[in-house]
Amino acid sequence: MEGTPQNGILRFNDTNWTVYNSNNTGQPINFVQAMTIDYLNNIWIGTQFYGLVKFNYSQNQWTVYNSTNSGLPGNNLFSVYTLKHIKYIGTSSGLAIYNDTNWTVFNENNLPLPSSTISSIVTDKYWNIWIGTGGGLAIYNANGIIGVENKQINIPIEFELFQNYPNPFNPYTTIEYDLKKSSNIKINIYNINGQLIHNFSFRNQRPGKYKIDFDGNKLPSGIYFYRLETDKFTDTKKMILVK
After folding, report:
1. Coil, helix or strand for 185?
2. Would you tell me which of 20, 23, 90, 93 could form a disulfide with 118, CB atoms 3.0–4.6 Å apart?
3. If you average pLDDT over every residue of the chain, what do you get?
4. Which residues is 95 bridged to in the sheet?
């Protein structure tokens, strides 16, 4: 099987091709960013903005895990790796580990990861997990992070909040911001009446460039505002949800 960025999943049995997509299966979106197979031959699929999908091929059962019904820290998945019964899931909001019962999430706030954006995951013959992040490479095992190699990054010279993209959006959008100093931050989302409808908060984020994904799936169309608050900086911008 092979995942695609537009057409779902393709399966070739040496004779015929079969297409699995959001129209003929329980797959929530056709944008597939990662795939792996576990020891029971279940297929685990990482999607863009729609979380993690488990496909039991023998029973034709599809199960969707997202940040609402599971321990996933975000729904934008870049990598999925299985080691025996344990799933390692790389998201734009950290590394999630799922053992079929419990979820554990690691990010740069609770583990010395170079970045919370996890782009790739592999293992070596010593069962170390090598984690490629937006800020460098980390090595993880049962003792925690045992090695980090940071890439050279340009530290922003100013605090800055950028315009979300896409804008208008439906229902997902990305918010980016720069930090020139380590800060406790909040990003609050307000409706047109000034009511707080969502909050992101991070303690002691290091200087650098960051982005978060916002899900407006449960909100009505309209004008919304997002506000970045740090120890030294505050800014607000407008975004439009169109369904």
Report:
1. strand
2. 90
3. 89
4. 90, 106
